[in-house]
Amino acid sequence: MTNIGETIHQIRLSKGLTQQEVYSGIISRSFASRFESGANDIGASKLFAILDNLAISADELRFIHQNYQPSAYDQALWTIRHAYETLNFPALATWIREHRHSPHAYEQLIASYASILMLSMTIVQSA
């Protein structure tokens, strides 16, 4: 995987923008070159300013940086939504059971969301 600077470099070139257009007033030209080559890293506030100049969001950057693959959070959420929408409650219950005590906070969050979906369906069915 490339670093964030290399991904920013690819995005900048694909948009036909110069370093001056993207980095002016944020970081120096020499720092920008080192950042794009992966030699330097930058803080969040500068990264957000750069993303504004590129007209992309942090989520778009992450998606591009991950070779146009959804994040693990998005993949897990899609799995839950798909199971719910297709009324595959056994799969939903299994996912909840396997992930509610996960070391990953996003999986715990999605397991809670899935539990609420299951509960709401139970309430609707009993009404």
Please give a structural write-up:
The protein is an all-alpha fold and 127 residues long. 72% of the residues lie in helices and 0% in strands. It is built from eight helices and no strands. Helix 7 runs antiparallel to helix 8. The longest helix has 22 residues. It is elongated, with a radius of gyration of 21 Å. The mean pLDDT is 92.
Radius of gyration: 21 Å
Distance between the termini: 51 Å
Shape: elongated
Average pLDDT value?
92
Which structural class do the helices and strands define?
mainly alpha
Helix fraction bin: over 70%
Strand tally: 0
Largest sheet: none
Tell me the series of helices and strands, N- to C-terminal: HHHHHHHH
Q: What share of residues are in beta strands?
A: under 5%
